[in-house]
Design brief:
The structure holds 2 protein chains of 2 kinds.
Chain A lengths: L1 H6 L10 H35 L3 H6 L14 H9 L2 H32 L5 H11 L8 H11 L4 H6 L8 H24 L3 H10 L3 H12 L1 H17 L2 H7 L8 H8 L7 H22 L15
Helix pairs in contact in A: 2-15, 4-15, 5-9, 5-12, 5-14, 6-9, 9-12, 9-13, 12-15, 14-15
Chain B lengths: L3 E11 L2 E11 L4 E5 L6 H9 L6 E6 L2 E2 L10 E4 L11 H11 L4 H15 L14 H13 L5 E5 L7 H18 L2 E6 L2 H7 L2 E6 L2 E6 L1 H6 L4 H6 L6 E13 L4 E17 L4 E2 L8 E11 L4 E7 L2 E7 L10 E6 L4 E5 L8
Parallel strand pairs in B: 3-8, 3-9, 6-7, 7-8
Antiparallel strand pairs in B: 1-2, 1-4, 4-5, 9-10, 11-12, 12-18, 13-17, 14-15, 14-17, 15-16
Classes of the chains: A mainly alpha, B alpha+beta.
Amino acid sequence: MTVAAATQPVTTSARFSPSWLAQVLQRYLLHIVIIGLTIAWMAPTVGLLVSSFRPFDLTKSSGWWTALSPFEFTLQNYSDVLSQSNLGQAFFNSFMIAVPATVIPTTIAAFAAYAFSWMKFPGRNWIFLALVGLLAVPLQLTFVPVLGVYVHQLGWTADNLAATGIPGLPWLPLWLAHAGYGLPFAIYLLANFFRALPSDLFESAEIDGAGTLTVFFRIILPLSVPALASLVIFQFLWVWNDLLVALIYVGGAPEVAPLTVNLADLTTSLGQGSNLLTAAAFFSMIVPLIVFLSLQRYFVRGILAGSVKG
Amino acid sequence: MSSVTYDHVVKRYTADVTVVKDLNVDIKDKEFMVLVGPSGCGKSTALRMLAGLESITEGQIRIGERVVNNVAAKDRDIAMVFQSYALYPHMSVYDNMAFPLQMQHMKKDEMDRRVKNASKILGLDPFLNRKPRALSGGQRQRVALGRAIVRSPKVFLLDEPLSNLDAKLRGQTRIELQKLHRELETTFIYVTHDQVEAMTMGDRIAIMNAGILQQVGTPGDVYDHPANLFVAGFIGTPTMNFVPVTTSDSTAKASGFEAKLPKSVPAGKGTLGFRPEALTDRPSADGSNLQMKVDVVERLGSDQYLYGQVGGDQVTARVDPRMKVAPGDTAQLGLDTRSIHLFDSESEAAFF
């Protein structure tokens, strides 16, 4: 008993005294703030979710927060979306766009970041600086010149690419565009991570007889899983959610357009079809959620623990 | 043949930053050579040039008869143990040790035999499947050694391998390293800033300071016959006493005493050096006696250190622990003039 008594937290302050108040505030205020922020962030999503299950007539006349009082829910919106729109094709298109548009820049960025962080070549810092400067270029600025090159110099119009008959080729301009837009940030992120790896590891590997590529594949990549995972999440989500770039480079034809374009087409400017929008939005959210939750576990801290120092 | 020769080696980073200046050392086959010096003295750079991690600005480094200036690190047939161990954190202990062999495309069974052998020598058998992060500092250190052993290199390079261990483990590992050296019969080159490690482990010691090699010799040599003031002060704890003196013929006159010199030197100014154990509680036969005003007494059981003033100079004495002396006393001490040193005041080189 004495042991238990000794380990109990000592609260000396009397009730309702200023220091007691401070203690209580410290204990609860943090929780209140966190819960408040969480609710504020989640409210729109929850509203969307609730609305997607409500009959269209009700959503027009009352807010989603009144959903419980005439208790009326339906799956009509979901079944309408599935039957009316081109959802399956759009889903497939989104994957066909997002996966290569994530893999290509991540791969290039990993090699480039290795060079920027661990290889010596003239002008390294200046090139890196220029690259970081590209982060500040608004991508809208690039549409006309890049499209110009695609169409006039390379002849990559939608028709020409489709005419080759190679599956996936119509998305090539979009893959490259997304790769280009993603690269500055990707290289910047990875180079900073690679640079923080202990140099002893590389020197040790060099003496052990590992060449540049072996070091890259056997040492850098396995140690950089957290950085790569976060980069993949960033890039995938950005491509998946992108409407503008896709619309510019591949257009809105249903056989190539991604989910975002399809979603935007669901509703007309007069507001018809907006009942489908809520349900369709939820469909499009499923994939980012799965990507995030499945890669989240790779954000392990301390993956470098035990490599150096005793 | 796996001797190592530094032949007029210079390492210069920029025109006025030279970290290794004209280094000449011959390291014999199967020798345990220790490079020692204060931090920034160029000892690590000298080792890294031999490892192939730094380029050589001038001169030649030879391993055996082969000049290795332009040989890639992996082709020099050396292995290096880093201060930080530099284990690959995502690989198991086994894979860490097998990595250099995989790089040589060695056959699986031969690789397995070598790794098992090294792990047996180092007592790592129970840990082969663990990741480095699940090991203690001492175990990690042994894995780093194991990774070097499996290659059976011509030369082992060790860059302060003990500095991340606690004092007790350091003492043990020191002994294990010496056993290992005897078993492997390979040239070891060991870099440290700790003169105790240097004295206890080295067949020979090379002492460096500010990029310049000061002296090469056996531990006994450098302890008894330091080449200059720096070596005399660097080797030995407590450090040697240095007292400014005026010399004439074969006597040296300090502020508080006179000492007979074993041979005559030109008249002038110099620095007299004598180790704390050169002072005893018995009067000296040739009359080189001194009186110390004792400030602090440290009893270690086996020894007794007296810190105090002799004339105007600070002096440390290591005397018999049975000598009765208390702070504030004036102790009568004899100086054993057989083990005194005299250094030139200008060049700091030793006369004897």
